[in-house]
Amino acid sequence: DGWREVLAVSNKLGIPVPAFSASLDYFDSYRRDRLPQNLTQAQRDYFGAHTYERLDKPRGEFFHTDWMGLSS
Questions:
Q1: Domain range spanning residue 18?
Q2: Which of 24, 36, 50, 64 could be stapled to 44 by a disulfide with Cβ–Cβ 3.0 to 4.6 Å?
Q3: Comparison of pLDDT for 20 and 39, the residue scoring more
Q4: Measured between alpha carbons, how far is 29 from 68 in angstroms, rounded to an integer?
Q5: Tell me, what's the pLDDT at 33?
Q6: Are 46 and 67 in contact (CB under 8 A)?
Q7: Which residue has the higher pLDDT, 40 or 9?
């Protein structure tokens, strides 16, 4: 947690440490089982009808949402 403490103190003092912050973000994402990519998947589906998988459904089952409600 020293890493986070250094970032908290530097933020409080107004000292920019972008590489430190980015490296902590990378580390946190690297050690997670699942990443929060739901917004990215929703945007891809909205703009290009790319479909997406849901965690509450069987693997390999894909969905597409009519985001604008244009389909009848």
A1: 1-35
A2: 50
A3: 20
A4: 32
A5: 75
A6: yes
A7: 9
Tokens of 6: 């250094």
- State the pLDDT at residue 71: 63
Is residue 10 in a domain? yes
Indicate the number of domains in the chain.
2
- Residues 7, 28, single domain; the answer is yes
Dihedral angle over CA of 8, 12, 16, 17, nearest 10: -10
Q: Return all residues near 42 (Cβ < 8 A) that are at least 6 apart.
A: 52, 65
What pLDDT was estimated at residue 49? 81
Per DSSP, the three-state class of 68 is: coil
Average pLDDT, the chain: 88
For residues 31 and 54, membership in a common domain is answered with: no
* Helix and strand counts by DSSP (H, E) for the chain: 3, 2
63, 52 in Cβ contact below 8 A? yes
The answer to whether residue 55 is domain-embedded is: yes
CATH number at 55 reads 1.20.5.320
